[in-house]
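Quick question, first post here. What does this chain look like in 3D?
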Amino acid sequence: MPITKGYQQLVSEAMAVVRTYSVPQTLARLNDPRTQIVDIRDVRELEREGTVPGALLAPRGMLEFWVDPASPYYKPVFGDESREFILFCGAGWRSALAAKALQDMGMTNVAHIDGGFTEWVKQGAPTETLEAHKARRHPKA
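> Answer (accepted):
Ran it through. Tokens below.
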């Protein structure tokens, strides 16, 4: 069975309808309590490359399940309609597709970072190791 719509077309279609922020635009929102940065990359990427400080780690494979209140995997953080959820992946392709999927589910408060974590690092934006991220989120008593 031939592929009738390839990944490039899917990503292009998603990019045409999702809100996209540059790294500087995202940095300007980083400490805004109304913004939640969401890292949708695989745990192996997180271990190898780190993440954005304060990012919510939400693996791409679980995202729709974590967002849907009817799902047994629902995460209440995604129900906060006062926040904007800015997704990122490695290059901005998966996050564009994920943002579109969330829009298709009815979310209007979702965007993604152009160029993903690769562009984030390239522009010298802050990062932290996965270990530091976990330690900050779950400090030892």
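The helical segments are 7-17, 23-29, 43-49, 63-67, 93-104, 116-122, 130-137.
The chain has one domain: 7-137.
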